[in-house]
Each structure stands twice: as structure tokens, then as C-alpha cells.
Amino acid sequence: MNKSDPKIELPGDAQNDGDQLDQTPLLSPQDVADHLQSSLRHVRREIASGALPVVRLGSRMLRITPKALARYIAERQS
């Protein structure tokens, strides 16, 4: 991250620990399906099984971090 990128300051422990929010956009299940060249149904099954970790934004909205997707792909490479 370069110096001109905005930083989000968090109150409490997160700020004291030096943690910063990742500025990388989160991916929707459809974005992940497109990237993997697979079906949305397959991505949803992987999420339901716990193989692909998600960030839950409310009860229905799911997002995947690019790091989680990269880990998922790396674990499945032969």
C-alpha cells in the first residue's frame, strides 16, 4: 500500500494492535465463479462445506477475500 492510500482508523483494540483493514475489494460468489470458470452453484457448495471461507455481511450477503480465494486455489493445485 502506498502512502497516498486512505487508511481507515478503528477504535479500540484493532487500532492499538496495529491492524489495518485490507483495501482490496471483496469478491461476490459470482465473481469467484467467474474467476474459477465454474458455476455459481459450485461456489455456493464450497462455501456451505466450509472449504471456501466467507465474510458474512448480514444474513444473506456473502463476500470472499482475494486472500481466501488464493488459499483455496493453492490448496487444490496438484
How is this structure best described in words?
The chain is mainly alpha-helical and 78 residues long. Strand 1 and strand 2 form a beta hairpin. Helix 2 crosses helix 3.
Outline of the structure:
About 40% of the residues lie in helices and about 10% in strands.
Task: Please outline the helices and strands.
Elements: H1 13-16, H2 29-36, H3 40-49, E1 55-57, E2 61-63, H4 66-76
Antiparallel strand pairs: 1-2
Helix pairs in contact: 2-3
How would a crystallographer describe the biggest sheet? 2 strands, antiparallel
Instruction: Give me the strand/helix succession.
Output: HHHEEH
Multimeric state: single chain
| Structural class designation | mainly alpha
Strand content: 5-15%
Low-confidence stretches: 13-18
Mean pLDDT: 83
Question: End-to-end span in angstroms?
Answer: 32 Å
The total count of helices amounts to 4
The total of beta strands comes to 2
* Structural Rg: 15 Å
What is the helix content?
A: 40-55%
- Approximate shape: globular
Main sheet strand line-up? 1-2
Comma- or semicolon-separated keywords:
two-stranded antiparallel ribbon, globular, 78 residues, mainly alpha, single chain
